[in-house]
C-alpha cells in the first residue's frame, strides 16, 4: 500500500462508533443494568431451557453490517438473557457466590475503557502499583502477614498451579544444593480427599497425572487427618518418590471443612515440603475477629490463595495468591525478551516475572473500587450476617426430625439431607436428590449437591451480597413443603 493511500479518510462504515452514539448507548445500558439488578428478586434464578436452544436461535454466520446499539441491547434481552443463570440473584445458593456488587460492575466498565495490559510496570504503572497497594490492604484486612508478596490471578485453580510450580522450583534448588537433582517424573503432592479438584489438575498439568496428587483421608468432620498425611509421606519416601508440597484447605468445596493447618505445617516443616493453603472461599471470613481461630497456622504457609470474587463481592475474575517466597516464583517464571526489557528501579514490580501470563487485565481496579465504595466495615457486616443466617438454617434443620445436617457449618454453607425414619439410607439419598431437583425446578432457588461420607447432601451456599434472612426462611419453607410431597 502506498503512503498516500494510508492517509485517505476512512469509509463511513469503518472504525469505531461515534462518541455520541456510544454515550447514549452507555446511558441506556447503565439504566438497563440498574433495572436488572433491581428486579432480580422477581425473576427465576435458573432459565427454563434445553441444551442447544440458544445455538439454534442465533445466526450461523457473522453479520456483515453492524447493528445499532439500542437494537443490539434489545436483541440481548430477547435472545440471550432468557438463557442466563442469574449468579447475582439473592437466591442463587448452588455454588460459592460470585455475584459481585454494584461497585464491581462500575469498575469493570472503567477497566474495559482503559483496557490496560499489564506486561510490566512501564506498560501500565497504575495497574502495577494499584495491585501492590490493594493486596497490602487485603492482607491487612484478613490478618495475613503483611510481608507476603501478592499477585492477582483469574481463579484459584491458576493460583494453585503457580504455587506448586514454585514448590517444584524450590525443591529442585534444594536438590542441587545437596549435590543431586530433582527427578520431575517422581514428584508428588498431598491434599485432603475433600480438596478441590483443581489441586489434582495441577499434577496433571505438570505431566505427572492425577495420581501424583495423593488424596489424604479425612476425619468425621471432613478435615485432613495428620496421621494419614504422615503415613503417606513415609510410604512415598520409602518408594523413592519425591514429595514437594502439601495443600491444606480452609473451607473445602463439599462442606467448608477446615484442615488442621498448624499440624500440617509441622509435618511440612519436618519434610521441607512447601505448604500451600487453599482459602479461596473461606479466606474472606478472616476479616471477622471471631472467625480467626479457624485460620490458626495459616501464617506459616509458603503460599495462600483467597478469592475476592467469591465472598468479598468483587466480580469474576479475581483470585489473590500470596507467598512468603516470591523469589521462587521469579526463579520459575522470569523470562524477559529483549523487546520487554526496561530500566531497573528498586520500586518497580513487573508481575509478568512472577507468573505464566504475559498480558494481565487491570483487575486491581475492581478490588480497589469495591474496598473504597463499600469499606471494610460493611463488607465484614455482610459476611457476619451470612454466617448468622446459615447458623439459623442449621438450627432449623437440627430441630426437624425428618432432616439432618451432614457436616458442621463453620462459615455460610449448610449441607443437609432429607432423612425421615421410614426411609433406608439409600432411599434417603434418592429422596434428597429428588428434593434438590424439585427445588431447582421451581426456578425460585438454585442449589447444588455433594457426597459426604457416601451420603447425598444438598448444599445451600449463602454468599451473595443481597441474600437476607427472608430468603433463607423462604428456602426452608420450600424444602419442607416439597419434602412432604415426595413419595
Q: What is the overall number of helices?
A: 14
Structural class: alpha/beta
Share in helix? 40-55%
Count every beta strand, where a strand is a DSSP E run of 2 or more residues. 11
Secondary-structure element sequence? HHHHHEHEHEHEHEEHEHHEEHEEH
Low-pLDDT stretches: 1-8
> How far apart lie the N and C ends?
76 Å
Question: What kind of sheet is the major sheet?
Answer: 7 strands, mixed
Backbone shape? globular
Radius of gyration (CA) equals 25 Å
Mean pLDDT: 93
Going across the biggest sheet, name each strand in turn. Answer: 1-7-6-5-4-2-3
Strand content: 5-15%
Give a topology summary.
Blueprint (H helix, E strand, L loop, with lengths): L18 H21 L13 H5 L11 H12 L21 H13 L10 H17 L7 E5 L2 H22 L9 E6 L4 H9 L7 E4 L9 H13 L3 E8 L11 H10 L3 E5 L24 E4 L1 H4 L7 E5 L2 H8 L30 H36 L3 E3 L7 E6 L6 H17 L6 E5 L2 E7 L7 H16 L3
Parallel strand pairs: 2-3, 2-4, 4-5, 5-6
Antiparallel strand pairs: 1-7, 6-7, 8-9, 9-11, 10-11
Briefly summarize what is shown.
By secondary structure, the chain is an alpha/beta fold. Helix content is 42%, strand content 12%. The relative contact order is 0.13.
Report on this model:
Helices cover 42% and strands 12% of the residues. With 487 residues, it is of the alpha/beta class. The strands form two sheets. A seven-stranded mixed beta sheet has the order 1-7-6-5-4-2-3, sandwiched between helices. Strands 8-9-11-10 form a four-stranded antiparallel beta sheet. The protein is globular. The model is unreliable at 1-8 (pLDDT under 50).
